[in-house]
Write a structure and sequence with these properties.
The complex is a heterodimer of chains A (112) and B (111).
Chain A (H helix, E strand, L loop, with lengths): L4 E3 L2 E4 L5 E6 L6 E7 L6 E7 L14 E5 L5 E5 L8 E8 L6 E2 L3 E5 L1
Parallel strand pairs in A: 2-10
Antiparallel strand pairs in A: 1-3, 3-7, 4-5, 4-8, 6-7, 8-9, 8-10
Chain B lengths: L1 E4 L3 E5 L4 E9 L2 E9 L6 E6 L3 E5 L2 E6 L4 E6 L8 E9 L5 E4 L3 E6 L1
Parallel strand pairs in B: 2-11
Antiparallel strand pairs in B: 1-3, 3-8, 4-5, 4-9, 6-7, 7-8, 9-10, 9-11
Classes of the chains: A mainly beta (112), B mainly beta (111).
Chain lengths: 112, 111
Amino acid sequence: GAGVSQSPSNKVTEKGKDVELRCDPISGHTALYWYRQRLGQGLEFLIYFQGNSAPDKSGLPSDRFSAERTGESVSTLTIQRTQQEDSAVYLCASSSPGQKLFFGSGTQLSVL
Amino acid sequence: GQNIDQPTEMTATEGAIVQINCTYQTSGFNGLFWYQQHAGEAPTFLSYNVLDGLEEKGRFSSFLSRSKGYSYLLLKELQMKDSASYLCAVRDLTGANNLFFGTGTRLTVIP
């Protein structure tokens, strides 16, 4: 596609359930980023994939969070045993090496 | 690590000029970005500085001083549609070119 695509756009779940968020980056972009944005706050770094290098997972807030990327394609962010504090917009972005990031529209996650 | 600071909120008048400052500390600076984010929308790219000096793009300009760890975004001839959050982000070479964002500056343009 022409841009970064994220799905679902909205997700409402119950506390304790697992959720999986998907990101389709722009074709050819080797770098892929996940950020979390709470209401009225800035972008909190979660995880960064760059080509075949080991991902930078230093931003993941707990072991309930994990992410995978298939080659230089789709990425999934998984949150296990969701908590109300996980409610936020999860933004994915992709880029060519050293270039500007293009963002998806995000997934609004609400944990009840 | 990274430490990026911006003012939380600013207010300016339509037609005026506003300067949004960003200071940073990072172990491996490799470029600074400014993004604009309207409420409920994804961030969009505004500017990129990797060398010292001023980059001008229409009504928006961005300045960088690497020795001072300082950048600013200058918005001229403010319009109501410029009300948004402005995010400063620093690329970290030691982190394989990872990109870290400040908390953003919420700008409100008033008539």
